[in-house]
Amino acid sequence: MPPPEVPGPESPPTAGSKAPGRRAPEPEADGPSLRAAVPGQPFYLPQADWGWTAAVAGFAAAIAPQALIEVLNVLSGSTSAKADKVTTASAVFIAVTSLVIYGWNALAAWLFSLRTAGRSLVLWGFRRPTVAYFWVVPLGLAAVYAFSLAHDAIVHPHQQAIVSDFPHSTIGVAMFVLVAVVLAPMFEEVLFRGFLFRGLANSFGWVWGAVLSASVFGAAHLQLDVFLPLAVLGFVLAWAYHRTGSLWTNITMHALFNAIAVLAWAFFS
After folding, report:
1. Cβ–Cβ < 8 Å for 243, 226
2. Which residue in 241, 166, 158 sits closest to 201, CA to CA?
3. How many helices (H) and strands (E) does the chain have?
4. 3-state DSSP assignment of residue 78
5. Rounded mean pLDDT of 182-188?
6. Region at 21 (left for phi over 0; alpha for psi -120 to 50; beta for the rest)
7. Which three-class secondary structure string do you get for 82-110?
8. Cα–Cα distance, 261 to 234 (Å, whole number)
9. Residue 4 region, left (φ>0) first, then alpha (ψ -120 to 50), else beta?
10. Residue 67: which pLDDT band, with cuts at 50, 70 and 90?
C-alpha cells in the first residue's frame, strides 16, 4: 500500500492568477471607480482620461459658433443698446437660440470626452453627491456673495447684458427663468466643470484646473467689470465639484445663484 501523499507548500499566486478559494472583486455598481485628481488628495472625482489638450480643443469647438456671431456683431456695428427692441417674441427667440447653442456646447464636449472615454455621464459628474452637498452649497453661495458684495461696493459694475434682453412680462420672466435658472446651470456646468475643469485637473491638478477654468468662465461672459466675481464663482463651483464628486452640486449652486439674480431683477428693477 503506497504511503499517503503529503501536500507540499502552495506556490504563491503569480500575476494574473487567482488565489485558490478567493473570488475576484466585483466591479462597483455605481459606474467608474473614483480616483484623486492629484495623488494624495483627500477629495475624489469620477475617473476620466481626457487631458488639457482635449479640453482646450473641445472648448474651442464648443464656443466657435458663438464667438463667430460676436465677431460679426462687432464688425456690423450691431452692439448698441437694444432695450427699445425687447419684446416677448425676442425673449422667446433668445430662449430657443440659447437652447441650440447650449446643445452644441454639450455635443462638442461629448465629442472630445465621453465619445472615447466610456460614454457614461458619470464621467461628467452625473452621480449622487456625498453628504457634503448639504453644507458645500450654502457655504459656497455665502462665499461668492460676500466677495460679490465687496466687489460691487468698490467697482460698481453694470448689470450683465442678458438682463436687458427680457421684458417685464409673464412670458418674459418665464423665458428669463428658463434660460438663467434651468438651461445655463445645466449646460454651463457640463461645459466648464464636467468637461473643461476635469480635463485641466487631470493634467495640472485640481487647483490649477479650477483657476484656469474659472478664468475662462469669467472671461466667457464678455464683461470686464464682472470678470472677478464670475471667476470667483467659477472657482467655487470647481471646488464644490471636486469636494462632492457630483455635478449636481454645481448645478444646484449655479441655479440658486442665478435665481436670486432673476428675483432681484423681477422685483427691484
Report:
1. no
2. 241
3. 10, 2
4. coil
5. 97
6. left
7. CHHHCCHHHHHHHHHHHHHHHHHHHHHHH
8. 16
9. beta
10. confident
State pLDDT tens for residues 84-106.
578 889 999 999 999 999 999 99
Report the distance separating Cα 182 and Cα 9, nearest Å: 65
Q: What is the DSSP string of 165-229?
A: GS-SSHHHHHHHHIIIIIIHHHHHIIIIIIIIIHHHHHHH-HHHHHHHHHHHHHHHT--GGGHHH
Residue 8: strand, helix, or coil: coil
Say whether pTM exceeds 0.85: no
- Whole-number Cα distances in Å, 166 to 68, 131, 251: 23, 37, 23
Q: What is the CA radius of gyration of the chain?
A: 24
Q: How many CB atoms lie within 10 A of CB 77?
A: 7
Q: Mean of the pLDDT values across residues 114-122?
A: 82
What average pLDDT does the segment 255-267 reach?
93
> Which residue(s) pair with 45 in the sheet?
35
**pLDDT beyond 70 at 74:** yes
The confidence score (pLDDT) of residue 159 equals 77
Q: Is 34 helix (H, G, I), strand (E, B) or coil?
A: strand
Q: For residue 115, give the amino acid letter.
A: R
DSSP state of 22: -
